[in-house]
Write a structure and sequence with these properties.
The complex is a heterodimer of chains A (about 1100) and B (about 375). With about 1100 residues, chain A is of the alpha/beta class. Helices cover about 35% and strands about 20% of the residues of chain A. Chain B folds into 2 domains: about 140 residues, Carbamoyl-phosphate synthase small subunit, N-terminal domain (Glucose Oxidase, domain 1, 3-Layer(bba) Sandwich); about 220 residues, Rossmann fold, CATH 3.40.50. Classes of the chains: A alpha/beta (about 1100), B alpha/beta (about 375).
């Protein structure tokens, strides 16, 4: 052996074959605290219920006890079965400290509850609470989080590993700015420092603009500083989902390429997985960078998300940001690949290494690998600008979308078109549908198309089609939008095929090959039907006759290299189908989900769908989930026996039914989405179970509904239907003002308005007709000052159980989804509650409800006597089902699903109404902070995105908790501004007196101030805005105001009070806009003087779940 | 309109799609690669000689082709199968479309078949011989040709891909292959270590790595004898990857046996199998092989896992492994041997591709290990 040999041999460490050192699961920790992300808001939706639920399951599977805190009752994670100790409490440092005091967890896992969870963990750490109670942060500690989250630290860290971030510098003078811009060039982002809500950031494209913006920015910054940063607007945007274990094994789970270039928030962008336009060299470089970032930041274990921008002309790579936690994108990546990031992250946090964890999908392989996929995933965001007409609908770096849908196809073209129809905005793909304006009188002109391409909005995808139709070249579209030519070319291919399809004489003349190709390009039957002017079902019948049917492929993490055991499928048009055959003697029941989140239909319905699936599995029935929302628990591959990730359209659902032949299909849990499909599915022979489709429709039919109420001796407010303006005026004349106007067949109170006079009537009816799209407009007498009540009930054909009677805090007229409410009713007399109960029973029987039913009532005092009116009946799961379940301990959705497959309530052991021993308050949470300048006044149109729950023995304390949880801090001292409309004047004196005796300083505008002055209450008058200074805006700007009670006399961002309310939102000052809520708030403030808030676990509250108690 | 093309397997399955690239008829072993990027590196990897390669990722050709991202002087594989060929190449480095590239290199391509169905068949049945044709549209005839085709076992495909003479390597890694592209490249000074790379169908990125490690690299055809190697006065010998069955390559076994103990040896892929065979190990054919860029391998010496690029249909058998060989690396998916070292002599090898290309860079440390063994 030569010299070299010796040296060579010694380069190997000894004990080579001893193999891996054993680092088992950590035995030094026993109880782990998880923090949820709270209410659904823009930027933080069900994805954190998905991640938290996975974490709970994963940790308990390993034998750890889990204590969980989340204020959102509509989550699966807050189900009492999910954690050992579940606290539905406000997500505040104080509440968490109390939970820690009681539970004494050994560790806190901060990375699964979104930004909220992460921020709270940081606060607990900074305040020394974790140290005090000996709680260790696992996954990522405070230093790591700070390094990732704090701009300067992050920048320094990236420089250490040789990665670029956007070049930039803070300057104090124009001269300094001129020096800096020489280096970073134009365009350049000018960001004034420390302005309210980070406002005032803009892009300078030329020298002149630059000087102007810097000068303006320096003036508007309270510290006379602006940050100048190189603009990466228009660059290509990518994301990498990375996981790391305690041994420093790092893997990439998924790469994501944004269709929309930099400049549109990734949450608002159409995104595609995997990356499409990177060579392997560039991809691996980004992978190297991702590994370097997670290591340098030091995330010990778990998942992170890293965003990159790539210059399209030279490949220059810039790190945009890193989230040291699971995120919306990691939920998307999990659904896109089948790799359960949150679950694995939880296991890594307790000491496992990636290669010690199995890949659930393949079983034989390990979690330590990089998923490879053999399909294309497209995510499209869903917006709700129609709810906020005053908001700026331009897509920017501030996220504005409220939901998303994901679609899987074998090609980008297919997944893109599937995603567009999965969005449920009336579009069935890339044009060629009812929403297609091309060739209609409203066809947008060339200028409009140019504008829409240059200013990204909710509908830019479809405007790209118009651009293609106008013959705008790919190069020009790219120039305007920055969208990669590869994507654009695929869109062009879709349009080229459309042209070919249009050139066919008709359905019968199309060749098999062309029809198959159309389906492979993702064209829906509805689009083909529109092109060839035939009914949709004819297209379906014709293609089935020709054998052109959907095949289902499995999502298996490995591109078929290994056998998949997890039945997670998507449809495509290929040769081979992979769905499993039906098992003999096993029933199959399909649940249709709710599709993308939107205002009015979100996590609450997903909660119901998940419960339906759990119930079916408990009964040994094979459960099949169909949904298109990647954020949800319902689309977790282990929620149901079979998962179909598909758009919720008649065509797509029928295609699945053709394959799996379900014994029953449940349509009442997914909100309006499946209900809209029910008739079509039923007519096609699909076995809908539960309440019949006829009943569902009858409840919507105004005449049949009125007839039923007459039969049952129940009242409804006087009402009428109008098909035109003249009819509307006649109806209003007949029933008298005020009236409630709304289009029929819409969700979430869209375009619903209260009219107090003929002028308002004309305006709102006109708007309602536009929204109604040919359907009539409904006009009801508006019951002023009435109390509204929601009831959720369950019926099995024999028995009816009223599960929850919810008394609204706000008066009738505020959408039930936006109103706070209380279980049990807090002011209704017993006889009225009985009357409600009886009416509910009567209607459930009359409608032959099998499953859930929701009724909305109004109680109005008529000559001193309360009179009960029925406003609406919906024989389906409602938004309040999870809240009722959490408030009463009765798992309503589960019970209803069992009822629907034939297990009666009695058989399930439910014979009586659940009577909770405590008060539960649900409060709504709004996205106003994201829509600068929008008036926050509540009305009949729903605008909230989420909800929280406060629980206590006392109503006042429960309300206080609900306010805290919703982010409305009730101040202990300070200044409160009062300004009320005429109608509310009589209430204000009493409220003001109570506030005064609590020691607050009161401010009021002239009218209210005079009133209070007369009553002997000390008050400081403030000027109206146009009367000069100091007006209320000055108090807000100076941070010299703690609380606002402002009931509207007018509405809109342009009114004085609208501006005040919008400014309050921007400054984070709680603003209460109804006298009822003000009353409850004052009650809560009073109660908080007497009693400290306490926390209690759900398990301790309900003996049936209270198997365990702490201490 | 592009013509029809067909792929027939020896089990009688026929897939009909659209032709791209060149027209013609080829046979080969049908296999699949699960890497989502790197089709150009895969096309030019000489180890695919004798194979018809199916990409599992459906959208191929998106970023076009360029002159830099190649692993040898031309594509050597028999045929190329994709689900969807991109007609547009979109990347700032792109110099042309994949379709044109295949035409220029006289390679037959097939587009538009249910590639996942094909992959599932190969996974379940095992690797099969097949014929890809744009000429013969008769299914029975194609299946018969597939059955009659030679396959890989027992064939010496190395001879078809090796360079005809020795040459000096002087190209560094691509600037796109690293986060710090401005570092020092190539050998410095007269005492830079000299490596002879025995080329059995070597991927150029291996040579680029050795060069970037500061080695002088001389490439010799894989048929070279030990004397020819030693005549170059190398400090170490590298055994490259290459196509097909390692067993019939007696000349290579002999050369390696003769070099063992004389110079440090490092082998990759076929080079790993040849080193093992030279030491008395056996190889066997895997059911459908490992081809992709996501294969987890554990390094027993550190307990750490690396995500590796792989391309092999044969593997070293764990049975009858000679005592001199110690298993250093194992595949976590199926526990196959991924690396060995000689207990006595300075020689080690890995079954996977530390040079990546296409694939992750986790295993580049192996080049450093080799570099340390050189004087």
């Amino acid at each position: 052996m030569g010299q070299a040999g010796k040296r060579g041999t010694t380069t190997f460490p000894r004990n080579l074959t001893k193999g891996r050192k054993r680092v088992p699961r950590r035995d030094d920790i026993h109880k782990i605290l998880l923090i949820g992300s709270g209410p659904i808001i823009i930027g933080q939706a069900c994805e954190f219920d998905y991640s938290g639920t996975q974490a709970c399951k994963a940790l308990r599977e390993e034998g750890y006890e889990v204590a969980l805190v989340n204020s959102n009752p509509a989550t699966i994670m807050t189900d009492p079965e999910m954690a050992d100790f579940t606290y539905i409490e406000p997500l505040t440092c104080e509440a968490l400290t109390k939970v820690i005091e009681i539970e004494r967890p050994d560790a806190l896992l901060p990375t699964l509850g979104g930004q909220t969870g992460l921020n709270l963990a940081m606060e607990l750490s900074q305040k020394g609470i974790l140290e005090k109670y000996g709680v260790e942060m696992i996954g990522a500690n405070a230093q790591v989080i700070a390094k990732a989250e704090e701009r300067d630290q992050f920048k320094a860290a990236m420089e250490r590993i040789g990665l670029e971030v956007c070049r930039g510098e803070t300057v104090r003078t124009l001269a300094e700015a001129r020096e800096v811009v020489k280096e970073i060039g134009l365009p350049c982002v000018v960001r004034p420092s420390f302005t309210l809500g980070g406002s005032g950031s803009s892009v300078a494209y030329n020298r002149e603009e630059f000087e102007k913006l810097v000068a303006k920015g320096l003036a508007s910054s309270p510290v006379t500083q602006v940050l100048l940063e190189e603009s990466v607007h228009g660059w290509k945007e990518f994301e990498m989902e990375v996981m790391r274990d305690v041994d420093d094994n790092v893997v990439i789970i998924c790469s994501i390429e944004n269709f929309d270039a930099m400049g549109v928030h990734t949450g608002d962008s159409i995104t595609v997985a995997p990356a499409q336009t990177l060579t392997d060299k560039e991809y691996q470089r980004m992978r190297d960078a991702s590994l370097a970032v997670i290591r340098e930041i030091g995330v010990e274990t778990g998942g992170s998300n890293i965003q990159f921008a790539i210059h399209p002309d030279n490949g220059r790579m810039v790190v945009i940001e890193m989230n040291p936690r699971v995120s919306r994108s990691s939920a998307l990546a999990s659904k896109a690949t089948g790799f359960p990031i949150a679950k694995i992250a939880a296991k890594l946090a307790v000491g496992y290494r990636l290669h010690e964890l199995a890949n659930d999908i393949t079983r034989e392989t390990k979690a330590c690998f990089e998923p490879t996929i053999d399909y294309v995933v497209t995510k499209v965001p869903r917006f709700a600008f129609e709810k906020f007409p005053e908001a700026d609908s331009l897509l920017t770096t501030q996220m504005k979308s409220v939901g998303e849908t994901m679609a899987i196809g074998r090609t980008f073209k297919e997944s893109f078109q599937k995603a567009l129809r999965g969005l449920e905005v009336g579009s069935f793909g890339f044009g060629c549908d009812g929403k297609d304006l091309w060739g209609t009188p409203e066809q947008p002109g060339l200028d409009e198309v140019h504008t829409k391409l240059a200013s990204p909005g909710a509908e830019r995808a479809w405007y790209l089609r118009y651009a293609i139709k106008y013959g705008i070249s790919i190069e020009e579209m790219y120039e305007i939008t920055g969208i990669d030519p590869w994507f654009l070319d695929n869109l062009v291919q879709i349009v080229e095929l459309e042209d070919k399809l249009r050139a066919q004489a008709g359905l019968a003349d199309v060749s098999d090959a062309l029809m198959r190709r159309a389906k492979q390009y993702g064209f829906s039957d509805r689009q083909l039907a529109t092109i060839w002017h035939v009914p949709e079902l004819d297209v379906r019948a014709e293609r089935i006759r020709r054998g052109i049917v959907a095949t289902f492929k499995s999502v298996d993490t490995c591109a078929a290299e290994f056998e998949a055991y997890t039945p997670y499928y998507y449809s495509t048009y290929e040769d081979e189908d992979e769905t499993p055959p039906k098992q003999p003697n096993k029933r199959r029941v399909m649940i249709l989900g709710g599709g993308p989140n939107r205002i009015g239909q979100g996590i609450e319905f997903d909660y119901c769908c998940c419960h339906a699936s759990f119930a079916l599995r408990e009964l040994g029935i094979e459960s099949i989930m169909v949904n298109s929302n990647p954020e949800t628990v319902s689309t977790d591959y282990d929620t149901s026996d079979l998962l179909f990730f598909e758009p919720l359209t008649t065509e797509d659902v029928l295609n699945i039914c053709d394959r799996v032949r379900p014994d029953g299909v449940i349509v009442q849990f997914g909100g309006q989405t499946p209900l809209n499909l029910a008739r079509g599915l039923f007519n096609a022979g699909v076995p809908i179970i539960g309440t019949s489709v006829d009943t569902i429709e009858d409840a919507e039919d105004r005449e049949k509904f009125a007839a039923m109420l007459r039969r049952l001796g129940l009242k409804q407010p006087p009402n009428g239907i109008a098909r035109n303006m003249a009819q509307a005026r006649a109806v209003a004349d007949q029933i008298g003002f005020p009236v409630l106007v709304r289009p029929s067949f819409v969700l979430g109170g869209r375009a619903m308005e209260i009219c107090y006079d003929a002028k308002q009537l004309d305006q709102f009816v006109r708007e309602a007709f536009i929204v109604a799209q040919g359907q009539p407009v409904l006009i009801d007498s508006f019951l002023e000052d009435a109390t509204e009540v929601d009831v959720d009930a369950i019926a099995d054909g024999e028995q009816v159980i009223v599960a929850g009677v919810m008394e609204h805090i706000e008066e009738a007229g505020v959408h039930s989804g936006d109103s706070a409410c209380s279980i049990p009713p807090y002011s209704l007399p017993g006889p009225v509650v009985n009357e409600i109960r009886e009416a509910t029973h009567a209607m459930a029987r009359e409608l032959k409800v099998i499953g859930l039913m929701n009724v909305q009532y109004a109680i109005k005092r008529d000559e001193g006597r309360p009179v009960l009116y029925v406003l609406e009946v919906n024989p389906r799961a409602s938004r309040t089902v999870p809240f009722v379940s959490k408030a009463t301990g009765m798992p309503l959705a589960k019970a209803a699903a069992k009822v629907m497959v034939g297990v009666t309530l009695a058989q399930q052991g439910y014979t009586r109404e659940p009577i909770p021993s405590h008060v539960s308050i649900k409060e709504a949470v709004f996205p106003f902070a994201k829509f600068a300048g929008v008036d926050v006044v509540l009305g009949p149109e729903m605008r909230s995105t989420g909800e929280v729950m406060g629980v206590s023995e006392r109503f006042s304390i429960a309300f206080a908790k609900s306010q805290l949880a919703a982010g409305s801090h009730l101040p202990e001292r300070g200044k409160i501004f009062l300004s009320v409309a005429k109608r509310a004047k009589r209430h204000i004196v009493g409220l003001a007196g109570r506030l005064e005796s609590l020691g607050y300083d009161l401010l009021a505008t002239k009218g209210t101030a005079q009133l209070l002055d007369q009553a002997g209450i000390k008050v400081t008058p403030v000027k109206k805005i146009q009367q000069g200074h100091p007006n209320l805006l000055d108090y807000i700007a100076n941070g010299d105001l703690q609380f606002i009670i402002n009931t509207p006399s007018g509405k809109g961002a342009r009114t004085d009070e609208g501006r005040i309310r919008a400014a309050a939102v921007a400054a984070g000052i709680p603003c209460i806009t109804t006298i009822q809520a003000a009353d409850a708030a004052v009650m809560a403030m009073e109660a908080l003087r007497e009693e400290e808030l306490s926390v209690q676990s759900v398990q301790a509250r309900f003996p049936q779940y209270g198997k365990k108690t702490s201490e | 309109m592009r013509p029809t093309a067909k792929l027939a397997l020896e089990d009688g399955t026929v897939y009909t799609g659209t032709a791209f690239g060149a027209e013609g008829e080829v046979d080969g072993e049908v296999c699949f690669n699960t890497s989502m990027t790197g089709y150009q590196e895969i096309l030019t990897d000489p180890s695919y000689r004798g194979q018809i390669v199916t990409m599992t990722y459906p959208e191929i050709g998106n970023y076009g082709v360029n002159a830099q991202d190649v692993e040898s002087r031309r594509p050597f594989l028999s045929g190329f199968v994709v689900r969807e060929l991109s007609r547009r190449a979109s990347n700032f480095r792109s110099e042309g479309t994949l379709d044109d590239y295949l035409k220029q290199n006289n390679l037959v391509g097939l587009e538009g078949i249910d590639t996942r169905a094909l992959v599932r068949r190969l996974r379940i049945v095992g690797a099969m011989r097949g014929v890809l044709s744009t000429i013969d549209m008769n299914d029975a005839s194609l299946v018969a040709k597939a059955k009659a085709s030679p396959g890989l076992v027992g064939r010496d495909l190395v001879q078809e891909v090796i360079p005809d003479k020795a040459f000096t390597w002087d190209e560094p890694l691509s600037p796109w292959a690293t986060l710090r592209p401005n570092g020092q490249h190539g050998p410095v000074g007269d005492d830079a270590p000299h490596v002879v790379a025995l080329d059995y169908g070597m991927k150029w990125n291996i040579a680029r790595h050795l060069f970037d490690m500061g080695c002088r690299v001389t490439v010799l055809p894989g048929t070279a004898t030990a004397d020819e190697v030693l005549a170059q006065e190398p400090d170490g010998v590298f055994l490259s990857n290459g196509p097909g069955d390692p067993e019939p390559l007696d000349y290579a076994h002999q050369t390696i046996r003769d070099l063992l103990g004389k110079r440090p040896i490092f082998g990759i892929c076929l080079g790993h199998q040849l080193l093992s065979l030279a030491c008395g190990a056996k190889t066997f054919k895997l059911k459908f092989g490992h081809r992709g860029a996501n294969q987890p391998v554990m390094d027993h010496s550190t307990g750490k896992v690396e995500i590796t690029t792989q391309n092999h249909g044969f593997a070293v058998s764990p049975d009858d492994l000679p005592d001199e060989l110690e298993v250093t690396h194992v595949n976590l998916n199926d526990d196959t041997i991924e690396g060995v070292r000689h207990r006595v002599h300075a020689a080690f090898s890995v079954q996977y591709h530390p040079e990546a290309s296409a694939g992750p860079h986790d295993s580049a440390y192996l080049f450093a290990r080799f570099r340390e063994m050189l004087s």
